[in-house]
């Protein structure tokens, strides 16, 4: 059991950690810090923690585990602010969707004697804010840890046990590998979803109304994630630029091949690809049913609906 857990940022992910940790008895005291007083009031009204403050330095005082749960672009400033107040022996972690950048901007501020173990739960929804979280968000999902070389194995073990207590399966990998894998499985899909909704929105008004009225379930399934938090996703694309551009380049190359097949009426090329992708998609789902599947392998419809007023 963690004596004191400090969560910096209390949106979808922070509030899900708070609820899950409380339910599983993983932390004795939970301190919650957010930048805005209104968000803190919401967290207090939901009873998510024991200590509430808009001062992150105050929240981390005496904490054994500190988890940054705000958008990745805020991490550097927060790290600078809390660094002098971290308890020797404490574990500093995060939940950011990008890992290389986090290691680069947070790592240098971590004082000697504090264990820095970055993390990323591969679980979420398109909803945001303290009311959107739920205790079993992380159940049967992966949590990736990217401890820098030489990190104290005991600290990695403690954090790993914490995530397992929330129901996750834990795996360690390098930040660079994480960022490349997540670029194609999560970041580019979000970019494509944002883009297609933008394309629809730019259509002439009468066509747009028809799209909205008649949008088939394919469009609805495909674009669910286009409702995701704009600031969080802005930060993902600003901080995982190289991996996203690498994967986007490949994606666009393959899309051009498809475009040509459509233009020249190459039915064989289309059918061959669609046959291959159907098998791949089905094997992803089958694998996900045997072991805990990362987000991208689960049907969109199975995300637990957010509580009322969470958007
Ligand atoms: N949304 C998702 O499905 C997932 C998100 N993540 C990562 O989790 C982190 C948080 O995302 P969500 O909980 O979805 O976002 P959210 O928008 O629901 O919550 C973010 C929280 O951070 C606070 N915040 C914003 N700027 C801050 C600052 N400068 N200082 C202190 N607090 C600040 C907000 O008030 C809010 O409480 C992000 O880094 C994201 O990359 C990881 C896995 C899944
Ligand atoms: O809503 C969904 O399906 C997601 O893909 C959620 C998500 C968003 C960001 C992450 O880093 C991990 C998971």
Automatic annotation (TrEMBL):
SUPFAM superfamilies in the cross-refs: 6-phosphogluconate dehydrogenase C-terminal domain-like, NAD(P)-binding Rossmann-fold domains
EC number annotated for this UniProt entry: 1.3.1.12
Keywords: Amino-acid biosynthesis, Aromatic amino acid biosynthesis, NAD, Oxidoreductase, Tyrosine biosynthesis
Domain Prephenate/arogenate dehydrogenase: 3-292
Residue numbers spanned by region Disordered: 290-311
Catalytic activity: prephenate + NAD(+) = 3-(4-hydroxyphenyl)pyruvate + CO2 + NADH
GO biological process: tyrosine biosynthetic process
Metabolic or biological pathway: Amino-acid biosynthesis; L-tyrosine biosynthesis; (4-hydroxyphenyl)pyruvate from prephenate (NAD(+) route): step 1/1
InterPro entries linked: 6-PGluconate_DH-like_C_sf (IPR008927), NAD(P)-bd_dom_sf (IPR036291), PDH_C (IPR046825), PDH_N (IPR046826), Preph/Arog_dehydrog (IPR050812), Prephen_DH (IPR003099)
MF terms in GO: NAD+ binding; prephenate dehydrogenase (NAD+) activity; prephenate dehydrogenase (NADP+) activity
Protein family according to the UniProt entry: Belongs to the prephenate/arogenate dehydrogenase family.
Protein name as it appears in the record: prephenate dehydrogenase
Source species: Pelagibacterium halotolerans (strain DSM 22347 / JCM 15775 / CGMCC 1.7692 / B2)
Source species taxonomy: Bacteria, Pseudomonadati, Pseudomonadota, Alphaproteobacteria, Hyphomicrobiales
């Amino acid at each position: 059991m963690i004596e004191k857990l400090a969560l910096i940022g209390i949106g979808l992910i922070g509030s899900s950690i708070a609820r899950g940790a409380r339910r599983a008895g993983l932390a004795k005291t939970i301190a919650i810090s957010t930048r805005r007083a209104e968000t803190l009031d919401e967290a207090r009204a939901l009873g998510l923690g024991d200590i509430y403050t808009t001062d992150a330095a105050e929240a981390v005082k005496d904490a054994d585990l500190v988890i940054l749960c705000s958008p990745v672009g805020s991490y550097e400033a927060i790290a600078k602010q809390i660094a002098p107040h971290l308890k020797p022996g404490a574990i500093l972690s995060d939940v950011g969707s990008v890992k290389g950048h986090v290691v680069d901007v947070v790592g240098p501020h971590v004082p000697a004697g504090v264990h820095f173990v970055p993390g990323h739960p591969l679980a979420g929804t398109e909803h945001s804010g303290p009311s959107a979280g739920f205790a079993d968000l992380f159940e049967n999902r992966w949590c990736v840890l990217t401890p820098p070389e030489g990190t104290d194995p005991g600290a990695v073990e403690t954090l790993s046990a914490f995530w397992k207590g929330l129901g996750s399966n834990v795996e360690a990998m390098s930040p660079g590998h994480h960022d490349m894998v997540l670029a194609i499985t999560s970041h580019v899909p979000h970019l494509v979803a944002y883009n297609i909704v933008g394309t629809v929105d730019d259509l002439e008004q009468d066509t747009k109304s028809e799209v909205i009225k008649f949008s088939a379930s394919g469009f609805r399934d495909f674009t669910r994630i286009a409702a995701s938090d704009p600031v969080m996703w802005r930060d993902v694309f600003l901080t995982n630029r190289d991996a996203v551009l690498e994967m986007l380049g490949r994606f666009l190359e393959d899309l051009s091949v498809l475009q040509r097949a459509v233009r020249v009426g190459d039915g064989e090329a289309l059918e061959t690809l669609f046959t291959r992708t159907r098998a791949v998609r089905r094997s992803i789902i089958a694998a996900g049913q045997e072991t805990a599947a990362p987000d991208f392998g689960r049907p969109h419809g199975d995300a637990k609906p957010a509580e009322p007023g969470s958007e």
